[in-house]
Each structure stands twice: as C-alpha cells, then as structure tokens.
Design a protein that fits this description.
- With about 325 residues, the protein is α+β, with helices and mostly antiparallel strands.
- It has ten helices and twelve strands.
- A hairpin with a 6-residue loop joins β11 and β12.
- The chain is elongated.
- Mean pLDDT is about 85; it is low at about 130-145.
Length: about 325
C-alpha cells in the first residue's frame, strides 16, 4: 500500500479542481497541506489534528475557542463531503495510475480528550468490468431493471468550451471574474433589460392618460411591447437563476458553432467569483445517445434534467451538480 506522502500530492491536485463554496473543502485543503508538512514523521499523532489546529490553519475567528471551532468543523461534515464525491475522486486517482485514494477519519477519544481528524489511504473499488460483477444500483421503481437507471455526468471545465466571437468580449477564453471589467460588462446585460422593462412600463402607464380613441398603431405598439418585455424579462430571469442556482444552460449565441450545448456556471476560485462556460454531459444508458441538460416543465421549470437527445421525453435523468450523478425519472 502506498504511503500517505505518496498519495497527498494527487489528493491536493483533486481538491484544487473543486469549485465548491463549502467549509468542508477549505478544511480538507488545510488538512491535506498540514498533513503533507509532517507526512515524513514516524509519529502517527503528528498526522492528527484537532479542531483548534484546523481552525488556526484556516485563520478563522474561532481559532482561540475550541468549542466554537469544534461546532463549526462538525457542521462542515468532512466525511459526507468526500463520500458524495467518491466517484469523481476515485476516477481522478485511477487516471493517474494509482490504486489507492485518501479518506478522512475522525478519532473521538473517551473522556476529556479532543477529537482528532486525519487522512488515511484507502483502496479503490475493484473494476466492475474486470471483475465481471454487477454494479450495486437501487432501482427507481419496483419491477424495473437496474441497467439504465443511473448515470454519471462528464465535466468539461472552464477553458475547454470555446465561446463565439460575439461572446469573447465577456468571456475571453471562456470565463471571467465578476469583479473585473468583463464582469461589469456582463452586469450591464442584466441592468439593460431591467431599464428597458422599466421604460416600457412607464410608457404604457403614460398611455393611460392620453384621452383619444385607440388606433391600430396603439394596438401594434402594445403587442410589440408585450413581446419585447417578455424577452427582456426572460433574459433578466436567467441571470438571476445563474446567481441563485449556480448553473443555467448557455445560449447558442455564446458558443462556437462547432461546440455542443454547454452551460454557464458560477463558482468561487479562491476569494474571487468566476462565471464561465462549462459542459456537463453523459451518454444515455438506455440508447447510447448524448445526454443534454434542459429545464423541466410545470413545477419543475427551474430544475435541470439530463435529457436524451433521441428520446427527450422518455429517457430523462436527474442532475446533481455536486455528485455529478443522475437517476432516471418516470
């Protein structure tokens, strides 16, 4: 079994690819960094860190309050963070020729001793194809077969999805920081529709004070204003959904003609907020066609689903941006 020091560089590289805004990610990065500093030590206790050690390394205000630091770290749920990303973590290590990964554990001594967190090597799950066994999948419905019920989404990060020539003003190579000139320009795409909607509403309100018969030109103006207002409102709503939901489908005008459908994603890169073009996709396990993200309908109109391009109403899967997994829905 490889040593902790041999696995830590790959683990730190994987953590660097994560774009979450969670306390767990911050703690895991600190735990990995601190473990790497003492990985050569023969004393296993030096590889264990209590709540104050981690809080001080994170430079949190709770660095001098053990109880507060302990509550904050407990609420971060480090074990759940890694277990929900096991598939992506295992694939990352496997692609680099490693058969072991790292997992976080907590040792809770009895009495008044403080709990300790540490990293330990963990063997990857055996290759299902080579073992000839079936994956452990729970069917969605009774009577349904396990095959074709679960999918894993592939992820193309920012920089790999090329914007159109019109979108390069905002995205450059495919992304931009919100606190930048491009960020201000992108903000203008949201403020401009809001100003136009306010102008249309004011114009319609002023028409109420015009005392004359309604003419055909007036009806044409109201129809045009209603259509334009809806288009502007839809654009403003998509911008709000991007900020609130972290991901929305990207307009075709933002992508090169040769690019497959992609998404706009908002995430943190250090202390900076980044908006970029990414792509989540998969292969339909039922018919082997491509899976694209689309909005649902009715009460699910704000929820993204993975839809098969060949049978978009039948082969439909949920989409989880964090675990990058989906389950077939009926």
């Amino acid at each position: 079994m490889p040593t902790l020091k041999e696995l830590l560089p790959c683990f730190r590289d994987w953590l660097a690819t994560q774009r979450d805004e969670t306390k767990a990610l911050v703690l895991l990065r600190v735990l990995a960094d601190e473990s790497y500093k003492v990985a050569s030590s023969a004393d296993p206790e030096q590889l264990e860190f209590d709540a104050l050690d981690l809080a001080q390394a994170c430079q949190w205000p709770e660095a001098n309050d053990f109880e507060a630091a302990s509550r904050k770290i407990k609420s971060a749920n480090l074990e759940r963070y890694l277990s929900s990303r096991t598939s992506d973590l295992d694939a990352f290590f496997s692609q680099r020729g490693l058969r072991h990964t790292l997992e976080v554990r907590k040792r809770s001594p009895s009495g008044r001793h403080r709990a300790q967190w540490f990293l330990v090597p963990h063997a990857l799950a055996p290759d299902l194809d080579s073992a000839g066994s079936e994956p452990d999948i729970v069917p969605v419905q009774e009577g349904s077969t396990t095959a074709g019920n679960l999918i894993e989404y592939d992820y193309a990060p920012v920089g790999s999805v090329q914007p159109s020539w019109m979108a390069r003003l905002f995205f450059g190579a495919g992304w931009f920081r919100t606190r930048s000139l491009r960020g201000l320009l992108f903000l203008g795409t949201g403020l401009a529709p809001a100003v136009c909607i306010a102008g249309l509403a004011a114009t319609v309100w002023l028409f109420l004070f015009v005392n004359r018969p309604v003419r055909t030109a007036d009806l044409a103006f109201f129809i045009f204003a209603a259509g334009l207002g809806w288009m502007l409102w839809d654009q403003l709503r998509r911008l709000w959904w991007l900020l609130a939901d972290r991901i929305v489908p990207a307009s075709e005008f933002l992508l090169k003609w040769s690019e497959a459908p992609a998404q706009l994603e908002s995430f943190k890169d250090g202390n900076a907020r980044v908006i970029g073009l990414v792509r989540y996709g998969a292969t339909c396990p039922v018919c082997a066609a491509a899976i694209e993200l689309r909005y649902g309908e009715g009460t699910e109109r704000r929820r993204l689903f993975g839809c098969c391009v060949e049978a978009p109403q039948e082969h439909v899967f949920t989409f989880d941006r964090v675990t990058r997994r989906g389950r077939r829905v009926r």
